[in-house]
């Protein structure tokens, strides 16, 4: 065989389906309501914005690559050990590090059918094989996952709550999954939306990641903290796992403005509480409002809802998407999640939520 005449990606890279972000622009409407990426309508804490801006005075200096101050702030906020935290350029970065450390060609990693669709990108990016587990009622299904475990399984990814379904797995089920998994399998508990959950039996994974030798919990500043634009996330797990992730971490993977903003955001408890209260008020109102139009909504515990449309021509999700976008309202199409008849809507401001429900009503009535 002749040597290639150009750089050739290694096997499997071009089989990865590119990540398709939500739309950011509308095609009409006098106001823009972006409810497509689970961003908070409250924005970041004003203290986080001020801290971010203050770092502009010394942008020529490299950030602290060990993120010591941020890890201490996280440790204080959550009552955990700073040496077992790793920070990332978004939690995506932590998911990528875990994949590259524990997966390689021939290995398998399991995630649920409608799990977060960055997992297959990370799995395939590491050269491993994604294995898709069945669900029950759009919710992760422990027995379905366990049936797929083989000698090659190295990671199981579970987001709880899950994106894009908003569904919730009782923590007793997570514990059952963990207990049944071989201890050589890393269980990644993705808790990106955990602050929004209002359930007595909810655990984000802090305790399990703090005690088990094979559990990594991931968290983000992108959702309730309103810092999606700065890219900041973290992982918490066994010392050995964190040490291994640190071996491949980009030396300065978190920027100084991001760290400063994150530290300030963690300390503004009132802002976090306001975001929780807003979601607690609007999640049920949006759910009921959309159901009252005759559309199905998957029960959600997060800051978004999955809306199911009929298959009827003119009323499909893609028709609704086009209609809403032409009225300034951006929801998230779910075709890349194999849910062609659904749209995901983020809980937005009161005005945005009402505008979206009104536009959905108009959309359904316009053909009735
Ligand atoms: N996990 C889940 C379940 C998510 O929905 C997201 C954001 N879409 C992430 C992780 C990644 O978030 P980030 O990289 O912004 O921290």
Automatic annotation (TrEMBL):
It catalyses: L-histidinol phosphate + 2-oxoglutarate = 3-(imidazol-4-yl)-2-oxopropyl phosphate + L-glutamate. Its EC number is 2.6.1.9. Gene3D superfamilies: Aspartate Aminotransferase, domain 1, Type I PLP-dependent aspartate aminotransferase-like (Major domain). Pathway: Amino-acid biosynthesis; L-histidine biosynthesis; L-histidine from 5-phospho-alpha-D-ribose 1-diphosphate: step 7/9. Residues 32-360 form the Aminotransferase class I/classII large domain. InterPro entries: Aminotransferase_I/II_large, HisP_aminotrans, HistidinolP_aminotransfase, PyrdxlP-dep_Trfase, PyrdxlP-dep_Trfase_major, PyrdxlP-dep_Trfase_small. The keyword Endoplasmic reticulum does not apply. One of its GO terms (molecular function) is histidinol-phosphate transaminase activity. Its cofactor is pyridoxal 5'-phosphate. The modification N6-(pyridoxal phosphate)lysine is found at residue 223. It is an enzyme of class 2 (transferase). Keywords: Amino-acid biosynthesis, Aminotransferase, Histidine biosynthesis, Pyridoxal phosphate, Transferase. It holds the Pfam family Aminotran_1_2. PANTHER family: HISTIDINOL-PHOSPHATE AMINOTRANSFERASE (PTHR43643:SF3), HISTIDINOL-PHOSPHATE AMINOTRANSFERASE 2 (PTHR43643). Homodimer. NCBIfam families: hisC. Belongs to the class-II pyridoxal-phosphate-dependent aminotransferase family. Histidinol-phosphate aminotransferase subfamily. This is Histidinol-phosphate aminotransferase. The lineage of its organism: Bacteria, Pseudomonadati, Pseudomonadota, Alphaproteobacteria, Hyphomicrobiales.
């Amino acid at each position: 065989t002749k040597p290639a005449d150009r750089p050739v990606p290694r096997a499997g890279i071009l089989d990865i389906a590119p990540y398709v972000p939500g739309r950011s622009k509308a095609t009409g409407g006098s106001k823009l309501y972006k409810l497509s990426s689970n961003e908070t309508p409250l924005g970041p804490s004003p203290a986080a914005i001020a801290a971010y801006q203050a770092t502009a005075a010394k942008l020529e200096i490299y950030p602290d690559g060990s993120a010591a101050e941020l890890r201490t702030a996280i440790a204080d906020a959550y009552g955990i050990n700073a040496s077992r935290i790793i920070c990332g350029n978004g939690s995506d970065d932590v998911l990528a590090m875990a994949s590259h450390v524990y997966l390689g060609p021939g290995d398998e990693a399991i995630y649920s059918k409608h799990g977060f669709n960055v997992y297959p990108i990370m799995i395939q990016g590491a050269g491993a094989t994604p294995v898709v587990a069945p669900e029950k009622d759009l919710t992760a299904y422990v027995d379905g996952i366990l049936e797929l475990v083989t000698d090659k399984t190295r990671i199981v990814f579970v987001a709880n709550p899950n994106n894009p379904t908003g569904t919730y797995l009782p923590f007793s089920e997570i514990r059952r999954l963990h207990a049944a998994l071989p201890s050589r399998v890393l269980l990644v508990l993705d808790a990106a939306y955990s602050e929004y959950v209002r359930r007595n039996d909810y655990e984000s994974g802090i305790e399990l990641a703090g005690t088990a030798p094979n559990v990594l919990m991931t968290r983000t500043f992108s959702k309730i903290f309103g810092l999606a634009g700065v890219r900041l996330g973290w992982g918490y797990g066994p010392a050995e796992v964190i040490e291994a992730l640190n071996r491949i971490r980009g030396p300065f993977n978190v920027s100084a403005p991001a760290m400063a903003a994150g530290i300030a955001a963690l300390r503004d408890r009132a802002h976090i509480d306001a975001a929780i209260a807003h979601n607690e008020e609007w999640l049920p109102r949006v759910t009921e409002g959309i159901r009252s139009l005759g559309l199905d909504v998957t029960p959600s515990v997060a800051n978004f809802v999955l809306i199911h449309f009929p298959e009827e021509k003119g009323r499909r999700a893609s028709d609704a998407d086009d209609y809403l976008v032409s009225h300034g309202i951006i929801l998230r199409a779910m075709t890349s999640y194999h849910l062609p008849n659904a749209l995901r809507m983020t809980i937005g401001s009161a005005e945005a939520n009402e505008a979206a429900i009104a536009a959905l009503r108009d959309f359904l009535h316009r053909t009735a």
